[in-house]
Specification:
This protein has about 170 residues and is mainly β. It has 2 helices and 11 strands, in the order αβββββαββββββ.
Length: about 170
């Protein structure tokens, strides 16, 4: 995040521009004054980006409301870490997006040394219109991954029918 603050300069309370490129970011707030996303302008094009959830450092472990779902998530992570995602509850390949599916490649090294997965939070994001791999995301689940080489954080993107359509491993 420090490099972002050095690269972008404030224009207004909610708008920043890049010191190095033709890029502008405008944070969008909801009726309660909370950031709900941002508008990214670059090279004459605009893209609205919805907020996915809180920063991980603000989340504390809590009781998992759906331990069986977390078991499925762990099975998917282990399968992806071993390069065998085909038999998992992930969004299957489709004619609409035959190459966009995340579980069709080889071994995911980020998932190879997981010791445990700790539930942190989940959010209903259906109204935010988040799309991953040509599928609408209904829920985002936040986990902490306990790994041999230091903990990481995980966002799992789930469709309305409970299939995992994507994941992100992040620092915060």
């Amino acid at each position: 995040m420090a490099s972002l603050t050095r690269s972008f300069l404030p224009e207004a309370d909610n708008r920043f521009h890049s010191a190095h490129q033709d890029v502008q970011i405008t944070f969008i707030k909801d009726g309660d004054g909370k950031v709900s996303g941002f508008l990214w302008k670059a090279d004459g094009k605009e893209r609205k980006v919805p907020r996915i959830g809180p920063l991980f450092h603000s989340l504390k472990p809590q009781s998992d409301p759906d331990p069986s779902r977390t078991e499925k998530v762990v099975a998917v992570l282990n399968a992806l870490g071993q390069g065998r995602a085909g038999d998992q509850p992930i969004r299957p390949r489709s004619r609409r997006a035959p190459r966009a599916d995340f579980g069709t490649g080889g071994i995911s090294r980020d998932l190879a040394d997981i010791q445990s997965v700790i539930f942190l939070a989940e959010q209903d994001v259906a109204v935010r219109k988040i799309e991953r791999h040509k599928s609408d995301v209904s829920r985002v689940i936040h986990y902490r991954l306990v790994k041999d080489k230091g903990d990481r954080f995980l966002l799992v993107h789930v469709t309305a029918d409970g299939l995992i359509t994507d994941y992100d491993i992040v620092e915060d």
